[in-house]
Amino acid sequence: MRRLMIRALLMVAALALLGSVTPAGASAATTDRFRLVTAANSPFGKGINGCCTLLSEANGKYASAELGYGGRDYGMLRARAGVADAWERFALSGTDTTWTVKSEGNGKYVSAELGYSGNAYGMLRARADVADAWEKFDLYYNEAQNLYALKSQANGKFVSAELGYRGREYAMLRARASEIGAWEKFRLGAF
Predict the structure, then answer these.
(1) Which terminus, N or C, of the chain has the lesser number of Cβ atoms within 10 Å?
(2) What does the alpha-carbon distance between residue 105 and residue 185 come to, in Å, rounded to a whole number?
């Protein structure tokens, strides 16, 4: 009877562990090591206009605004560049806890596309002339790792680099994660 009880407990523990395993590429919880960046505690002041690149920690590629794409994909952000050129430059500006991201390549604010459905829901695009609800983000910082995460204020989701996608959607940036995991971590760099 005692052996049966021990086996049952081991089975329950094993199932609990399996339930907490994060599938390959999916996000594991690390939000507790990141703090919300405000104007008061910002490591770089109220803004770093004209100085930023976003490097995906997960694949080591710079985020690009895809200005060669047409239609609904014009300005899509993808972590796909090995070097930072014109399409990989962004300006971050902050006021208190609200941050905007603006493409230096086309001068447009980055939007989280909440009107799209399916795999395109929350896609980030450099397409707005003014910063409205879909163009506002929270910025989180992990000082120990010098990593950042962006969270859309419009849907409350963290920005992910979609490394499971293929073709022209590979590494598309989307506001879709509930927590900060491997795909949601970025390095900010100067150009």
Answers:
(1) N
(2) 23
Amino acid identity, position 123 = M
In the predicted structure, residue 6 carries a pLDDT above the cut 50: no
The two three-digit tokens of residue 49, written as one number: 């206009």
> Distance from CA of residue 33 to its chain's centroid?
16
Q: Which two tokens stand for residue 11?
A: 């089975």
Asked if the structure places residue 92 within a domain, the reply is: yes
Amino acid letter, 174: R
Domain that holds residue 101: 27-189
Residue 69 in domain: yes
What is the residue type of 95?
T
Q: Per-residue pLDDT tens for 101-152?
A: 999 999 999 999 999 999 999 999 999 999 999 999 999 999 999 999 999 9
Query: Beta 123-128 vs 109-113: how paired, if at all?
Result: antiparallel
Six-digit token pair at 10? 């081991």
